[in-house]
Write a structure and sequence with these properties.
Length: 80
């Protein structure tokens, strides 16, 4: 059951400005890489990295191919 909301000045949601394109989309920016794993297919191994995006929390992290992330963000892989 829902209850009525009682306003509280301490309930302030922090947010960042997002630059929207003309067609109301935005480009997601990679914040950090938190994990790495290899997927093995029959004859090929694919390296995957778990990526945390800047405008989303760590619970919304996604698995992306390492080669794709290296192509788009080479500066994050200098220490790896």
């Amino acid at each position: 059951m829902l209850r009525a909301y009682r306003s509280n000045p301490e309930h302030v949601i922090k947010h960042e400005e997002i630059q929207l394109e003309d067609h109301l989309t935005y480009e997601e920016v990679l914040a950090q890489i938190v994990d790495k794993q290899e997927k093995e297919l029959r004859r090929k191994k694919i390296v995957m990295v778990k990526v945390v995006w800047r405008n989303q929390g760590s619970e919304a992290a996604t698995w992306e191919t390492e080669s794709c992330m290296r192509e788009k963000n080479p500066e994050l892989f200098n220490g790896i």
